[in-house]
Specification:
Alpha-Beta Plaits; TIM Barrel; 8-stranded mixed beta barrel; 5-stranded parallel beta sheet; binds ligand C2E; binds magnesium ion
Amino acid sequence: MEQIKILIVEDEPVLALDLAKKLRKLGYEIIDIVSTGELAVNLVKQTQLDLIFMDIKLKGAIDGIETATQILQIEDIPIVYLTGYVDEETVERAEHSGCYGYMLKPCKPIELYATIKIVLKKHKELTKAKISLFNKSQSISLKQSNYNLITQLPNRLYLQEKFSQTLEQQNADINLQYNELHDFKIATIIYLNIDRFYRINNNLGHKYGNLLLQQIAQRLQTILSDEVLIAHLNADEFAIVFFAVENRQQILQSINRVTQQFERPFLLNKREIFLTTSIGIAVYPWDSTEIEQLLQKAYQAMSQAKQQGGNQYKFYQPTVEKEESDILTLETDLRYALGRKELQLYYQPQISLKTGSIVGVEALIRWHHPHKGIISPSIFIPLAEQTGLINALGEWVLLKACQQMKTWQLKSLAVDRIAVNLSGRQFNQVDLGKILIKILKRTQLDSHCLELELTESTLIADLDLTIRQLNTLKSLGIKISVDDFGTGYSSFSYLQNFPFDILKIDRSFIKNIDQNCKNAAITKALIQMAHQLNLKVIAEGVETKKELSFLRKNKCDEVQGYFFSPPLSVCEFELLLQKHQVAKTIPN
Ligand code: C2E
Ligand code: MG
Ligand code: MG
């Protein structure tokens, strides 16, 4: 009999190991033990599972019930909750999350055995019922289980089957032509993930999320041919396989054909939505000859693209595999980084286009890892968010930045304001106001000199809370800017209704703005609109003179980017300020 594959999600190591031991004794296979919801969701995307035991109280950003909800959106796997206690509210939440059972820890082997038997039987029956409902008039056809119910695109199973069939056919053709295998074809496997898709589901609801997926599927189908396979893998993830590719040039062309589909906006609920994608690529037969392995490698490359900010593609590189496992060690290292003084703030100037002076500075965190060198905040900030370390880390950044600003003011090297990035979890802290008051008092910094940068995703997560927090910040006299504007939801109505001071246009719009008409038009419109709303506009990531000229011509207020200066250490930044002050006293 086939072994039942079980995943344990439990952050209490002793309990997790005890449960694994009992289950193994009962003859079940433990695929893995993970300690956070995020790890569980990732694993589900890559591994075939029969059952999950899920602790409800998990230490990470999402608890067991939320994890189960996310998993069930990806795949229909039976989930049994484990808990140390029972209360009304939790039971009710659990009940609505589509779980199969609820067990009190620690569980006895006999209870485990009985529960697993019942759950698997119930799941089998339900699956059967669902399939027959779906097929309605037709007899149950195996084929149906090969298609995604939302988009009607083939799923992973179909892709697996069809991939080897197509390859066999291709090789047969080549053999026929040349009588030997001296010419072999390659295939590009593209793993595509929609950036920040969860925001659509969170804000417009699953109905619109599904409608959007259908539109995406329709667009992707326009590239379908005998030599292209497309599959909807799960939630917001698709795989596109291009066969009969002959060289690198053609691989790049195939990627282009996919990304082109996202150049035009999608229309949803009468709104235009621009989507970006993170793409990972594996190539047959270089990276592997097995489709499962190829998909896994393309997935790893996609994760890397995502970690580097999304809206880009990455080829699979063998080192990625190692990096993935390094993440766990990194998490532990990060816990000690603050105490070991491995964290440091760098400062990047913001220049007024009217006066040419440095008017602001953004504090950006750096981690000098003892073995790995400098680690980008795009990697460790999300990690700190997941583990909850972000609050302590964020408070440290605020304190350091305010202290530094005060020191510069005392040295008469001051700029008008210092900007500090705030992550979502930090912004949602109930006592954020108190923390800020404490820091401003301790550093004696005037609150008007402090600016907090928030991203769109932070702002739209919980609108009531956002309004409350923004009002607190405003009442303290702190400035608020919207960071990376344009990359996400880009809702103009909240720009109107929330008390923002500054809009920061994301780097992706500024890049080559002198050549890219679409970005030029968007940026122009954004600047005009922001001015009408009395917001100051900062363009991020200005790298060339041409980009600068465009922004100047279109009345952008301030710029930030490598063209003027990358983020600098305290000493370097002081030198820059001094040089700038001298330059300003010399008439031109
Ligand atoms: P961000 O707030 O949008 O910061 C701008 C990022 O763009 C910085 O990356 C900066 O080094 C980079 N950048 C600036 N000018 C240019 C340019 O001309 N070209 C290019 N290619 N890049 C440019 P960095 O320092 O790696 O930070 C990445 C992100 O990490 C930040 O994006 C911010 O969201 C986050 N972050 C950084 N420090 C903190 C922090 O203290 N707390 C929190 N919560 N997040 C932080
Ligand atoms: Mg920022
Ligand atoms: Mg930014």
